[in-house]
Design a protein that fits this description.
Length: 254
């Protein structure tokens, strides 16, 4: 009976997500949160999200875009992405969430044997002008997700944006690399002047490898790359970081 109740709770959450998310125009503030659990606490953290946090986030107006863990989760982290109408709405939602008696009860019960989370990294983001709009498209089959972070040389972020806007986005799609969301970091954060952070989806690790190989060999890409770097390299040395991700069982998208 407990498993049936859990299944129904997840199904209702999924139904709400698919029927009544905020429109793309209403989401202007995004937050990428990375939880670093204490040793041996990752599964308990998943249980708390699955059984309590996801429903309470929805209750308090937080748009849940995705929950992931790295494929090779050496640091045993949980990564997830939220959206809000604006920064003020974010502060209001989190205040209401933290003061909710249901959350306080769940938190107390889940930490009876010690705190689950050591620390949380939070990064505030906004969509680039060429990014697809949320929510992340659903899929009937499980996908491999990828978080990619590009670090530019000084004053080269606009050049990188132009290359993505005019060439890369379309070439990714041409070669089977599914564009999801593209972000800049909000001002005032480390890396905000030279960082592009974006997410892709792949049918499999093999399709990812094949897609990037075809992309890298495409004459149109080579011409666009060379033209965009006529005035100097856009990215710093080793300026691309890639993190393969898989969705958790309670993520709104798989």
């Amino acid at each position: 009976m407990k498993s049936l109740s859990l299944w129904l709770a997840v199904a209702v959450t999924s139904l709400i997500w698919n029927v009544s998310p905020l429109s793309a125009e209403e989401l202007t503030c995004f937050e990428l949160r990375t939880y670093h659990p204490n040793e041996g606490k990752l599964e308990a953290l998943h249980s708390r999200f699955r059984d309590h946090t996801v429903g309470l986030f929805d209750k308090h107006g937080m748009t849940q875009l995705a929950y992931w863990v790295p494929v090779e989760n050496r640091e045993n982290v949980l990564v997830y992405l939220l959206g809000y109408p604006n920064k003020a709405a974010r502060e209001t939602a989190w205040k209401a969430f933290r003061s909710d008696p249901d959350w306080q009860k769940a938190y107390k019960a889940s930490t009876a044997d010690g705190k689950l989370v050591n620390h949380v990294d939070s990064v505030f983001l906004h969509l680039t002008d060429y990014s697809p709009k949320p929510p992340i498209p659903a899929s009937d089959t499980a996908r491999l997700f990828e978080m990619r972070q590009y670090t530019c040389n000084p004053d080269k972020l606009e050049n990188l944006d132009a290359r993505f806007r005019d060439h890369t986005i379309d070439l990714f799609e041409k070669h089977g690399l599914t564009n999801l969301l593209y972000f800049h970091l909000d001002d005032g954060q480390e890396g905000s002047e030279n960082t592009l952070l974006y997410f892709l989806a792949h049918a499999s690790d093999e399709s990812k490898a094949a897609g990037f190989k075809a992309f890298s060999q495409d004459p149109e890409w080579k011409a666009a790359r060379d033209a965009s770097e006529a005035g100097g390299k856009i990215l710093v040395k080793q300026g691309v970081q890639s993190t393969p991700l898989k969705a958790t069982d309670y993520s709104p998208v798989k």
